[in-house]
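Sequence in, structure out. First:
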Amino acid sequence: MLKRLPTEFIFQVFALLVAVVLVHTAYVALVRPQAASTLEAQALRIEQDAGYVPEQTIAVVIKDYEQEACFILLLWALAIMGYKAMELVRERGVLESELIPLGDGIKILPEDTREYARQLQAFPEEVRQCLLPRVLLAGLQRFESTRNVQDVSALAENLCNGEGDRLESELSMIRYIAWAIPSLGFIGTVRGIGSALGQAHQAMSGDISNVTQSLGVAFNSTFVALVLSIVLMFLIHQLQASQERLVRETRNQLDQRWIHHFRV
């Protein structure tokens, strides 16, 4: 636990830097040049044909700074979720493996707990940090000291509930990003509307090109932010469901494969 938290923090910082570099490079090299050429061609076409209706392209829709920031946050959130998904894969691999083979007729007495504890402690560090070995080791130690099966069951319940609360709290950063993305979209809306109102005098004189472009910034930023937040929230709920399923299956396995072997 103490080693994993700094590692995860360093990963998050590194993932943010990588997301900024990748997205900004894509915008500078591809998105904004393509959007500028598209807008220039559309403006020329409008001068030649008054009835021409410009088509919205992806580059034009996502060209502004608010959309760029939204994509950076989305990529950052996906990296954090990928890190947590890899942890879930490791936890599930340990859960589905048979750490210590136990037959149907085997009974675990308080005198036997040290032998089983030594077998658990012989596993690599990355295995011992998983939920099932941690709870099982704590249960064996509790059973040795109290000789009470009910105490072991209560301990396993409390540790699993605590793990669920910890996994829930660690999603707070991703939820913050999911909240920040539509907020950035609304910032773009306010900026676009404010810019359009500042150019109202040009519209009064008959030139509405700058006004419509500013309104495009307002609506496009909100549209992109809402779409990205919908996608991110769906992935967050899927990750949370997987975490809850892992904790629940760990608790069931402790009851079905371990605690019912304990005998005083």
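Second:
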Amino acid sequence: MKKVAIMAMCLLTLGACQQKTGNKDSKIDAVRDSMAQIISQKDSEINDIMSTFNDIQEGFREINEAQGRVNLERANPEKMSREDILDNISFIRRTMQLNKERIARLQEQLKTSSFNASKLKETIDELNKQMDEKSQQIAQMEEDLKAKDVKIAEQGKQIDDLNQNVNNLSAQNDQKAQTMAAQDKELNTAWYVFGTKKELKEQRILQNSDVLKSNTFNKDYFTKLDIRVVKTIKLYSKSAKLLTNHPAGSYTLDRDALKQYTLRITNPDQFWSVSKYLVILVR
């Protein structure tokens, strides 16, 4: 009996050790999974920030190209037209405005990111400084153009008439620029909403399992965005499903460390090609 009792105690001790080892392994697995999610989240955030930064750099490249065209035309007056110069300046101003919105978006992404990037903050300051310099350069271009108009007037035309023509052309150009900017904005504007089934039904966005089938849905419930600027939408939910039709491969639904979804639009032109309205069901 004594031997049996000793053997039973040994078995119980061995079982307890195995249970502790199993619990330890489970904790290690949980920590490993948590670390993997954090790393994945940081990778996604870095990719989002770099995507916006690349868009900003592309904007600066387009601005520099347009500036080069204006300078080239000013250096070769026989090959230039005043309207071409004004068109290029108008393009530069529109692209600068878009870049300002992208830089603001980059600042927002940095505020909500899970890592501290002091170097990136310095980069944003430098981008804003470049934007200020570009604004001064464009203002100088416009002043040079006005001075050129005055010089032409002094060479034989009536200054008053020319100034009136300049003012008319400037007004026409401003109107044209505003029209083009409005058209650009409209072409690149989309609307999105995410909500529970109950919320979407209350706003008549979802009716009898059909989405946006009636014009009675509440358009004010949607958030407007510029598809050139906004490429990520945080959904703050562990469950997400797109109800509107958007091509597969043009977006991903990624989870962060809290297992909440973020929509990442990897190909904006393709994503919004079917519909400029985005409806996402969350829980």
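Remark: DSSP finds six helices and nine strands in the chain.
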